Structures are given as structure tokens and as C-alpha cells.
Amino acid sequence: MASHFNAISDPRKKGSCYYSQKDVLMSAFSCMYFQEPSLLKFQQQMEDQQGSNNCRSLFGIENIPQ
Question: pTM score, two decimals?
């Protein structure tokens, strides 16, 4: 999935965005996959409890958009 998102050209100005387009698109996909009301909160809790989270391990998301 990430390779497909990486293939989409990013029209945003380089250096002006905090989140990569891939991270934004993968986060949107993972919201539907996990069906959590707050993806960021859910992943932060998992990170605190287990030292890792699904967004990083399953989807390769580096920065979860807030």
C-alpha cells in the first residue's frame, strides 16, 4: 500500500510540510482499518504500554498526523 501512496506526486511545497504525504495517506487508511475515534491517542497508549505501535510496525508511518 505504501508503495502506491509513494507513487502519487506531492504538489505541496518541499520543506513546508511537517508530515509526509505517505504518512498522511497511510494514517487515513489506518483510521479506517483500526476504527478508533482517536488514532493518535490509541497509538500513543500502545507505544507507552508496549514500546511500539501498529502505525509504525504495520503501516510504516513515521509521524502520525494530529
Answer: 0.59
Residues 6+ positions from 24 with CB-CB distance below 8 Å: 65
Q: What is the pLDDT along the chain (66 residues), one digit of tens a residue?
A: 778 888 898 888 888 888 888 888 888 888 778 777 787 888 888 889 998 888 888 888 888 877
When divided into structural domains, the chain yields a total of 1
Q: Which structural domain range is residue 30 located in?
A: 18-66
Helix/strand/coil (H/E/C) assignment for every residue in 36-65: CCCHHHHHHHHHHHHCCCHHHHHHCCCCCC
**Does residue 33 lie within any of the structural domains?**
yes
Is residue 38 assigned to a domain?
yes
